[in-house]
């Protein structure tokens, strides 16, 4: 049997990361958070580099996650993510990741639509703006970041609008994706639902 791919897409702070890590741990799959690739390119532009050159030179082994998880880097990521040449430079790495592991979970915005349209399981994880802002606010303030809930909500909305409104691989569920709305779900139930969907195809 060939590689088994789980595609997990959705807007910012919907729970994709937690669900992806849990599914990967449950089935012994490798996990790639593709948002980190765009964040790394965004961070490089904040440091003065040109976006497309930075995307072509990207070295995922050298990522500093703490730096990449900040608000300004998230906004810069969504700006470079609208550039077709940046997206094109990152496609091969993502597809190769899915191919070289017996099982892989990739999470992002366009995994089920563009990167791995043949994925065995496609989930679109979402939640209301307010719930996502609340979760991201608690996460960031818990790490000592100086943020307000209103500021986080505004940032998420700006990023989602840019991600869904762009021409290149816009944020949207694949036709064959199962939507998991976690607005009224605790994270344990969301994980259980995702694990059950994967188990059913495994
Ligand atoms: O998932 P995360 O919030 O880390 O993603 C940061 C940004 O990277 C997103 O707002 C989006 O613009 C971009 N992105 C993307 N396609 C992906 C993953 C992330 O365009 N597959």
Automatic annotation (TrEMBL):
Signal peptide: none annotated. Its EC number is 2.7.4.25. Pfam families: Cytidylate_kin. One of its GO terms (biological process) is pyrimidine nucleotide metabolic process. Residues 6-48, 67-197 form the Cytidylate kinase domain. Keywords: ATP-binding, Cytoplasm, Kinase, Nucleotide-binding, Transferase. One of its GO terms (molecular function) is CMP kinase activity. The keyword Transit peptide does not apply. ATP binds at residues 10-18. It is found in: Cytoplasm. It catalyses: dCMP + ATP = dCDP + ADP; CMP + ATP = CDP + ADP. It is an enzyme of class 2 (transferase). GO terms for cellular component: cytoplasm. Belongs to the cytidylate kinase family. Type 1 subfamily. This is Cytidylate kinase. It comes from Oceanicola granulosus (strain ATCC BAA-861 / DSM 15982 / KCTC 12143 / HTCC2516). The gene is cmk.
